[in-house]
Each structure stands twice: as structure tokens, then as C-alpha cells.
Amino acid sequence: MQEVKKFKTESKRLLDLMINSIYSNKEIFLRELISNASDAIDKYHYLALTKKDIPVLENYEINLAIDKEKRALIIEDNGIGMTHDEIVNHLGTIAKSGSLEFLDKIKDEKANDIDIIGQFGVGFYSAFMVSSKVEVETKSPYSEVAYRFSSAGSESYKIEEIDKPNNGTKVIVYLRDNTEEENYDKYLEQYHISSLVKKYSDYVRYPITMVMERSETKKDADGKPIEGQYETINEKETLNSMIPIWKKAKADVTEEQLNNFYKQKFNDYNDPLVSLSVNTEGLLTYNALLFIPKKAPYDLYSENYERGLQLYTKGVFIMDKCKELIPDYLRFVKGLVDSSDLSLNISREMLQQDRQLQKIASTIEKKILNELARLQKDEYDKYLEFFDTFGINLKYSIYQSYGQNKDKVQDLLVYKTINEEKPISLKTYVEKMKDKQDAIYFASAKDKDAVLAMPQMDLVKKYGYDVLILTDNVDEFVMTMLQNYMDKPFKSINQGELNILDDNQKEEVEKLKDLKKSFIDKLKDILKDDVSDVVISSRLTDSPVCLVSTDGISFEMEKVLASMPDGNQNNIKAQRVLELNPNHDLFKTLEKVYTSNPAELEDYAKLLYSQALLMEGFPLKDPVEFSNKMCELMIKSSK
Ligand code: ADP
């Protein structure tokens, strides 16, 4: 039986990308194929241990062979193999949902193979970077029949039945002819292949073998070497050390090895920003390797993103993304855990209840938080790089847990401020607070200049208080959850009372309030539909007016809520308060208008309110009316 099938459209695109690849690191195809072989043996072994009808094998092996005549490199495993349907579904289609989405995204743009290889590791298809044709001979324990898949990377591939008694897969990579830019012959050299195995696949837990040709001094009948005479010896050698990298002592693993391992295992083309190896013994015995990537995966916040660590027990692979091992707010952490305490038969459903696993998860969470704290202490610039990419997750964790995660996470938060060059932690902020300052001030704005330009900053600037600059949507919500830090309350510079005046100054403001009561009441009456209050300001020194909100919902929150998918249907709004600067000339002018020509005060008051709205970045209810009033006033004043 023989059939010819067409590749799925997306697969064809990925294939084309591989065939025309300008990716310089083509040699990674070997580690991808070896890694597939190793996964296949993992799967077989796991089945054999858990299912009666499948025998456990004595020797698992990935064998490499070179056929110089056919210009072919052969990678053979005795793993799980593939049934007919699996060939169609796994080799004829892209299995990885991620790469599909990615391909969709770049549909109209120029396809960039570096990005796609980097983001997903293209697995099996990477063989087409070096080959003109690929054959896969495979037999699954679930199928009576064995098959050969073959493809030259064109529209279609062929599947035919073959004779193959043993379970497993043999991938035959027919190498391309050399070109000026690229030497493909090197993949026919034993020495080169063996060094690639060392470089990329040393930790693979199964022997990667190859019959190596060696030249040795000839020996005579008594076993004595005969000088000057050589013979060729062919001997099967194991090329890899087979010790999983996570089981090796820290001192025996170079940074490069760790980085290579990370990149291949987790399909990243950047070295990790942080790697952490954990070996614990005692009540809990497990090894873990944890990584924080340099860049966030493009789908980190999409619904399809699956967080989790790879789970092994006693060196046997159990599952790929065990989400119970990592809390959602650390979803960006990659890695694996190998425990000797878990049952091999553990199912996804049982994981949630497994006490042992919960304990491992909680120590892992602690290790990661400790490592972040260490980084913050010892390598601040690196920490800032981390925070820039992933800090938002820490913020969300405080918000989403309604503050429960506060103690764990708050010291890891850093903020840009108006006085400091680099972002600082809350602790540093508090340590640097001025003598009389008793609150942690913050302002929501896009950058430092925008904060400095805010009228509400007048007095804060004068006193030299530092102000946290909040730029993320979630920031103010986090402040609401935190409430205070080291007993210092958080205070928005444009919300509620600032508590910035001393007792004498406060008294003066109070006096002034009494004195100007009827004038202020009049303004309140005019603006009663727009603001909940009009008050004499204790935060303005240079600016004539500003708009603030009462404690509770802030302007920033109102804007964030309005930008939500439901468009703030509950119409949650900040309570607006108009503050006037009693020392400003404008205040005096208004008072004059109030006494001499009260009818005109209405126009002035409305104009003033509109200005305050504009400064806060709110739209005007009626811009035309605002403009007309403004014109009238200008004309009047020039008469
Ligand atoms: P990935 O390995 O990341 O899933 P690949 O494109 O490398 O992606 O492989 C696709 C699928 O083909 C694998 O998930 C596996 O099911 C199957 N496959 C590939 N190589 C082998 C093999 N040597 N033995 C059994 N199945 C394999």
C-alpha cells in the first residue's frame, strides 16, 4: 500500500521556511531529532511501566549512523514509534499550536525564520534545513504494520507500508549537496557528529551510540604492538555522558552547558536571564532546574499560554507542563522538577491533591522569590531588566490575590520616581523619605516630565518629596491593595487630603475657608452637576486650579475601567473635587467678579472647571461651548 498526501497549508509554509532558511545555526537539526528520539523512548518506557501488554526493554538506545555513499545521516530509536494516523497528524501537520498562531501572525509580513526557530524550535521540520529528502521508518506498539514516510519538502509526502519488526523510529536525512555558503558534508564526519552530540545532547538519558572508526597500532599474535603498522577498528561507542544535567553537581555544569540545555529544551534563542538549580534532600528529595527567560514569550498573557514545569519522577518523564508546580504569577518561569517521591502512575487529576507535590511547589516558589531578592540585592541592573519584562506579573499577583500575596512580593516591586535615576524599591523610598514626610506619594502619568508638570505637584516639589511614577494600568489598584508599606500610607498626589501641611498652615487654611465661605459656596452651586466639592487647596502654590478625586476610585482607575472590554458598564466614576489656589491672582480676580458682577461668575467657573478637566486628560463635555466662552473672554479683556 502506498499513498500520497498533501501537507496542511501551515505545515507547507513552515517547510518552505526551513528549506529556504538562512538560519545560521543549521546544526541544531541534530539535537531536535535526537530530542524527538529521546522523547519517544520516554513515552515508550512510561507506557511499558504502566501498561501490562507492553514490555519494558533492557536497552534503550538512540543510534546514529552515517552512510557516505547515500550521503545520509540516520537517527534510530527504539521508542514509541508512530501509527499511520500519528504520522499524518504529527509529521503532516504542525502539532504545536503556538507555531501555528505565530505563522498566522506573520502571514502578511516577511517571514522571519530566525524568529520562528527561536520561538518554537521547529522540531522535526528542521531536518529540511540540511536535507533534500527525509525518510521516517516507524512502528508503533499499537500498530501491526510499520510505515515509511518520505518527503522532499514539496507539496506532498508519501506513506507506504514497510517491513519493520521492532518498535521505534528511524529517521534518514539525505544531506544536500554542498553550496558555496554552506558545507553539508560535515554532517557525514563522525567526529563532527560526535562533537555535536556532546555540545547539545550530552545530558540525554539514553545512550546515543555510533559505530566509530578508529585507527590503532597493529598487534602481533602475542598482543605486542607492531610499530609503524596500523589497523582500522570499528567499535560502537556511547557519545553522551547520559547524566541528566539536573542531576550533576553544580560545579560540573558549565554556564554554557546550562544555557544550551535551556535553549534546546525550552525553545528559546536567547540565553536565560537567570538559571537556578535546586537540589534538596531530606523530607523532600528532588532536583529542579529553573529558568527565567530574557524575553517574555509573545503569548505569555494569552489564554492559550500554558504555564508549568516539566515533571520527572526518578528520571522518568511524566508530563510536560505541570501547572501545579508553579503559581500563576510566576508563569514566566520555565524548568523541570525531578522528584523521587512521586508515584509514576500519578495522573493530572491526582496532582492537585498530592501533598508531596504541593510541598515541592511551595519550596520552589520560595526559591524563586529568594533568587529574585538576591538578584535585586547583588545584580541590580539585571534585576531591573527582569522587572521591566516580568514585574507586571508580581503586581498582578498582589491585585488578584486581594493583597494576600503582599508580604511575599511587595519588596520585589520597584518604581521609577521623580528624584531617582533608576527605579527604586519601596524600602529605599521609605529610607530616603524627608523628615516630616509621612506618606509614600505616587502619581499616575506616562513619564517623569508629565508628573512634574502636574499642578497637584506644586507643594510636593517644593518640599523635595519623591514621588513614585505609576505607568501600568494595574498600579493604582495595587496601591489600593497594599494600603501602606512599613506603616507609611500610600498617597496619590491628586486624591483626597495630602496631609502635607503642618498644624499652623492647616489652621490658616481653615481660617481662610471660613472667610471665603460664601464665595466658595457660590462656585459649588454653579458647578454642582460637575463636581462633588469645591475647596481651597492646600497643595497648590503656583498653579491656579486643579482637579482631584476623593479617596476611593481615582481618575486613573476611572480611565482604566473605561478602557476595559465592558467599557465600564457600571459607570464607576471618581468623585471630582475642584481645588482653588487662594494665593493665585486668578482667585482674586474671581472674587472680584463675584462681588462686582455675580452673573458673570458662572462663565468663569465653568471655564475654570474645563481647564482642570483638560489638565487631567479628561475630554470636555462641550468643547464648542468652551471655545466660545474663551473667545468672549479674550475679546472682553482686550476692550
Ligand atoms: P515536537 O517534538 O516539539 O512535538 P516535532 O515537529 O519535532 O515537534 O515532532 C512532532 C511530533 O512527531 C512529535 O510530537 C512526536 O509525536 C512525533 N515524532 C517525531 N519524532 C518522533 C520519533 N522519533 N518517534 C516517535 N514520534 C516522533
What does this structure look like?
Helices cover 37% and strands 22% of the residues. With 639 residues, the protein is an alpha+beta fold. It folds into four domains: 2-238, Heat Shock Protein 90; 245-378, Ribosomal Protein S5, domain 2, CATH 3.30.230; 401-492, Rossmann fold (3-Layer(aba) Sandwich); 503-638, Four Helix Bundle (Hemerythrin (Met), subunit A). The strands form four sheets. Strands 1-6-5-4-7-3-2-8-9 form a nine-stranded mixed sheet, covered by helices on one side. A six-stranded mixed sheet has the order 16-15-18-17-20-19, sandwiched between helices. A five-stranded mixed sheet has the order 10-11-14-12-13, sandwiched between helices. Helix 2 (28-50) crosses helix 6, helix 9 crosses helix 10 (380-400) and helix 10 packs across helix 15. The protein is elongated. The mean pLDDT is 88. The structure holds adenosine-5'-diphosphate.
Number of helices: 21
Residue-averaged pLDDT, rounded? 88
Task: Provide the low-confidence segments as ranges.
Answer: none
Top CATH class of the largest domain: Alpha Beta
Backbone shape: elongated
Please report the distance between the alpha carbons of the first and last residues: 100 Å
Any idea of the CATH topology of the largest domain?
Heat Shock Protein 90
The neighbouring-strand order within the major sheet is 1-6-5-4-7-3-2-8-9
CATH superfamily of the largest domain: Histidine kinase-like ATPase, C-terminal domain
Can you summarize the main beta sheet?
9 strands, mixed
Question: In the residues, how many domains can be counted?
Answer: 4
Can you count the beta strands? 23
Secondary structure category: alpha+beta
| Computed CA radius of gyration, to the nearest angstrom | 34 Å
Q: Bound compounds, please? A: adenosine-5'-diphosphate
CATH architectural label of the largest domain: 2-Layer Sandwich
What proportion of the residues form beta strands (DSSP E)?
Answer: 15-25%
What is the share of helical residues?
Answer: 25-40%
